[in-house]
Design brief:
With 181 residues, the chain is of the alpha+beta class. The protein is built from four helices and seven strands. The strands form two sheets. It has a five-stranded antiparallel β-sheet, with helices on both faces. The chain has a two-stranded antiparallel sheet with strand order 4-5. The termini are far apart. Bound molecules: nickel (II) ion (NI). Nickel (II) ion binds next to helix 3.
Length: 181
C-alpha cells in the first residue's frame, strides 16, 4: 500500500489572515536563523493559508508571525515551478518602472495602482536555508516587491499619495463602524 497520494493531499493548518491595522503588519519582521522541520511545516501552512484566501502571495506577518518568510505563487496552483519560498529576501537589483493595480489579503477589497520597479532580482534562502536568486518582471516583480515590503512593515497603501491613503483610511473606518471590517 502506498501513502504517496495521501501525502500529496495532507492537510496543513490554515491560519487566519491578520487585517490592517493590526500592529504586526507595520513592524519590521525578524530574520530567520533556524532552518528546521517546524519552518518547513510553517511554509506548507503558509501556502495552504494563501490558497484558502485566494491569494498569490503571503508574508508571515499576515498570519501574525513577525519573521522574514514569504510565499508566492503567481500562477495560483497552475504551474508548480512558480511556487516560491523566500526567506530573509533582499532585492539586489531594480530595473524600470511599472504602475499597476495591487490588492492585499490584509486589506480586503481595496485595490489601487502602485508605483513599482518593472523588474527585480531577489536573493533569498529557501526553507532549507539554501541561498538562491530569482528574477521577476511584470506580476512576479510586483508580488516580490509587495511581499518583501510586508517583511519591512510596509503595506501597499503606504506607497500611495497622502490623498489616496486618507480616502482609504476613511473607507476602512466606516467599514469598521458598520462591523464590516
Ligand atoms: Ni499584501
Amino acid at each position: 500500500m502506498s501513502d504517496k497520494g495521501k501525502a500529496a493531499v495532507a492537510a496543513h493548518k490554515i491560519h487566519a489572515i491578520v487585517k490592517y491595522p493590526d500592529p504586526v503588519l507595520s513592524r519590521p519582521a525578524e530574520k530567520v536563523t533556524e532552518f528546521n522541520a517546524d519552518l518547513v511545516e510553517l511554509v506548507a501552512e503558509m501556502f495552504e493559508s494563501m490558497y484558502a484566501a485566494q491569494g498569490i502571495g503571503l508574508a508571515a506577518p499576515q498570519i501574525g508571525i513577525s519573521k522574514q518568510i514569504t510565499v508566492i505563487d503567481v500562477s495560483f496552483k497552475e504551474r508548480p515551478e512558480d511556487k516560491l519560498v523566500l526567506i530573509n529576501p533582499e532585492i539586489s537589483e531594480r530595473k524600470g518602472k511599472q504602475f499597476e493595480e495591487e490588492g492585499c489579503l490584509s486589506l480586503p477589497d481595496i485595490r489601487e495602482k502602485v508605483h513599482r520597479a518593472a523588474a527585480v532580482t531577489v536573493r533569498a534562502q529557501d526553507e532549507f536555508g539554501e541561498f538562491f536568486e530569482v528574477d521577476g518582471d511584470e506580476l512576479l516583480a510586483r508580488a516580490l516587491q509587495h511581499e518583501i515590503d510586508h517583511l519591512h512593515g510596509v503595506l501597499f497603501i503606504d506607497r500611495l499619495s497622502r490623498l489616496k491613503r486618507d480616502l482609504i483610511y476613511r473607507r476602512i473606518r466606516k467599514l469598521q463602524k458598520n462591523g464590516e471590517w
